[in-house]
């Protein structure tokens, strides 16, 4: 059970036209005990908020105790995100920002973001990689920079870590360590994300690859609405369950006018090392069928390869450790296609 599941459940409920998640000042999960502090815009809403919280959490049996507290106040809008929708801010020094999103977790979004960044860099571009996956920042592990400390420059801007020629910044560098309980403060987190996005000394980049949190929640939507993005890439696996969520992700980007550059089909097939035969473990052709129906494009299909996970654990993406593998070739082809497509626009 993660705070994310709780936030997802609470997001479904609203009082007085405001989602419960927007009223949260503080939320803390320690073991099976949940503590939520809400901002209370009107005293008379207290009972309704309590009732709707319990109702929303009914189907989460892992949450045993719920302690609800209130402080006076209205939903807080963080400073940089408080501007009207669609007044987007550019990230200083960045020519093109490509967001990598997914409808659901675990489909290989971070793997794609990491290898796409490497492939773009190998094509000769100046590349940065920004890991905004607050639920599970895995870029530091993929690049072997876990636990690195981030410094600031004279303008108080964060200085990315440089690895394999790529400038890397992860929200994981700023979050508390893994063994401390997850503490989620909505507006505080948004404020941190704002600094994390805009107050960074990237130098001059051709491409900044942004690894979004999985799903289509408030954080993803807020980021997509407020950051000037060249386009988004949606990662999926060919299972029906993942594809259903891709619809949500593409709809979210369309809703906020972020062009969807295309869909990457990850773990599309497995190549038997002995016979060289391809096996479409999760089914063949489903992603193509889906993207056609939604007038999207498949940017590429990445095979399933145990080396991907192995190389991730060693802190060097497969595009560097084994550039000749089928997986790497697919990533290089995607990077070429994406950069050509962006340059043609
Ligand atoms: N093509 C692939 N072949 C084999 N394993 C893969 C492939 N792509 C990703 N994986 C593995 O699948 C797991 C999930 O990948 P990853 O962390 O990139 O997914 P994610 O969508 O970013 O997940 P999360 O939502 O948790 O951030 C990792 O162990 C990764 O090494």
From TrEMBL:
Q: Name one GO molecular function term.
A: ATP hydrolysis activity
Lineage: superkingdom: Bacteria
Positions of ATP binding: 103-110
Q: Which UniProt keywords apply?
A: ATP-binding, Hydrolase, Iron, Iron-sulfur, Metal-binding, Nucleotide-binding
InterPro entries per UniProt? Mrp-like_CS (IPR000808), Mrp/NBP35_ATP-bd (IPR019591), NUBPL-like (IPR044304), P-loop_NTPase (IPR027417), YlxH/NBP35 (IPR033756)
List, alphabetically, the CDD domains matched. Answer: Mrp_NBP35
Tell me the Gene Ontology biological-process terms attached to this UniProt entry.
Answer: iron-sulfur cluster assembly
Write down a Pfam family by its short name: ParA
Q: What does this protein do?
A: Binds and transfers iron-sulfur (Fe-S) clusters to target apoproteins. Can hydrolyze ATP.
**Family assignment?**
Belongs to the Mrp/NBP35 ATP-binding proteins family.
Q: How does it assemble?
A: Homodimer.
Protein name in UniProt:
Iron-sulfur cluster carrier protein
Q: Which organism is it from?
A: Hydrogenobacter thermophilus (strain DSM 6534 / IAM 12695 / TK-6)
Gene name?
A: mrp
